[in-house]
Amino acid sequence: MKKLKRTILAIVLFVALLAILCVVEDKVIPKSSHKSDKLSSAEVAMLCNGDIILRKGFGFVSNKIVEILDEPYSLSHCGIVVLDDGEPYVIHSVSSTLSDYDGVQRCSLNRFFVDSKPNSIVVVRYLGAETDNGALVTTDAKRYLEAQVPFDNSFDLTDNAKMYCTELVWKILLDNYSCDIYPDHSSHNTLGFAPFMDTTRFKIIINHCVFDSSRMER
Questions:
Q1: pLDDT tens, 37-61?
Q2: With contact defined as beta carbons under 8 Å apart, do 61 and 119 qualify?
Q3: What is the value of pTM for the model shown?
């Protein structure tokens, strides 16, 4: 019981800290001052429907996420690639503290690049989605987009009425392929990005991110 209370307290403090830092980051860090990461034209041509694109953003929130997760790859955000007449865009969930719109939304690939720290972009493809060319992933992503699902500031995987970035991807893979990348729903580490680097489930298409062996899970 004491362990459960400590876990709940840690989650509450974690969420509260992120909420505070979101406001600070949005007001203090001007996006125009960043030198960003991006994909080459050859890499863009490699993108397919349903690919998952990940990055590390700028500022306090992204740094704190990376610090708390302590994963081998420094990542803090993700979205789903959708092709519109061959042109890729991204469907992702973003808080209104960092965006003009709250929740699930779409942005151009170039807009996604603006908020990507240099040497941070990763693109992976769920192996099960290759059989349908990512159709199930993109169809579900569009459904959440059309439903205007708000951002989940509580980071609660048990609440499907709101979603944060990795929660959106988790839910889509779970519903369409019975693939649960976050089996421990009670842990704050459900925010993590390490499951996307599991090559038994995902094919790494593009990787600009540096692997930090010192962060390997013991």
A1: 999 999 999 999 999 999 999 988 8
A2: no
A3: 0.84
